[in-house]
Each structure stands twice: as structure tokens, then as C-alpha cells.
Amino acid sequence: MLPRVIIHNAVSVDGRIDGFPPEIGVFYEVASAWDVDAHLVGSETLFAESDSMDEEPGETVAREAQKPRNGAPDADAPLLAVPDSEGRVRNWELLDEQPYWGEMVALISSATPDEYVEYLGLVGVDYVEAGDDHVDLREALAELADRYDVETVLTDSGGTLNGVLLRAGLVDEVSVLVHPYLVGGTSPRSFVRGPDPSESAPAASLSLLGVERRDDDLLQLRYALD
User: Fold this and answer.
1) What is the domain partition of the chain in residue ranges?
2) Beta bridge partners of 116
3) What is the reported pTM?
């Protein structure tokens, strides 16, 4: 059985995820209202976060030995799952120090380099292998449900992972925290990215679940996928 998947993003009025100062406190306050079992975080999102940690993810590649996790993870904290078929995320020891997550799991494919699998063993990070040349998210989510009893997943991601989940029919709910900014621009920085809609993959139809005004000029919109 697949877990319930909720996409949650901070956006401008014109739907961009960059070019404006997001209200991070409100964003995570909203996110905490869901009783989620796992956070599905895109590798690109972790790369951006590691910039704020003053270390590039690739800086750990050359290290032969990594420190293992310090003690047992917090059983009450959500699991962190990161799709990373190419084995790019190499800052798990920094992620281990963050207070947001308990267990950590890399989602890989059969094409993931053996060296990366060995690296995960060195740092004490579990992995789920799903798919051939890329991570099969449907199979990976099913394995998370079976192995870790994950029932609800919240994404913390940019548009690419959200787009893959949407096109695969894996999204149950969408939450957008709309900020009072118009960014403009021509770069495709929507919170959902991927191929343009077509007859075989039409635009997703939504049903409004609720609208709530938060912190003066912020609006939270919640939709269910039809």
C-alpha cells in the first residue's frame, strides 16, 4: 500500500519558488500540523541547504571514512528520504546533526555506483533500491511503507521532484503558502516542473480543501488531487 503524499511549497502570487523572502517560520509551522512519518526531500534542495551550512555536498567525496550516526535516531522525528540515483549527496553527517529528522534513508536505483552504496554503509545510512536507471518513486514509497510503516509523506522539494511525483500519479494533496510578491522572469521556477501537459499527461485537476489567511498577507491554499 502506498503512503499518502502531500506537496507543500512556499510560492509567490505568480507561482514562483524563488526571488522573494519566504516566511520560513510560518512555512514549517504549517508543515508541523500534519502528522507525517517521512519527509521526501530532493537532492537539489539539500544542495541549497548545505550552502547555508557552509559546506558543499561534494566536499565529503574524498573522505575515506565518515563518522557514523551518534546514537539512535529520534523515534518521534520524521524519517528523511532522499532520492539520489547518481549518488551525489555526500553530506549525510551534516544532515544527521539537524533536529528535523530521525532515521535517514537514501533512495537509489540499480544504476547507483557501488562506491556510493559502500559510502552509505560507512556513514550508517540505510537505503532503498528501486528502479533501474533512475529511482522508481512508486516502488520506493511502497517499500518505505512496508519497511518503516510510513503512512504519510510530506515533500520538502523544488519543482523537479514535485513534477515527477505528480506525473506518476503519486500526489494526494497540494498545499501552497502564497506570499504577497510578484516575481516575474522567464526561468521555469515553478513549484512543479516537468514536461508540458499533453493528451497523454493532461493538467492535473484539483478540488479545493481549504483557504486560510496566515500571518497578515499570507494565504494557505489546500487542494486534493481529483
Assistant:
1) 1-31+163-226, 38-150
2) none
3) 0.85
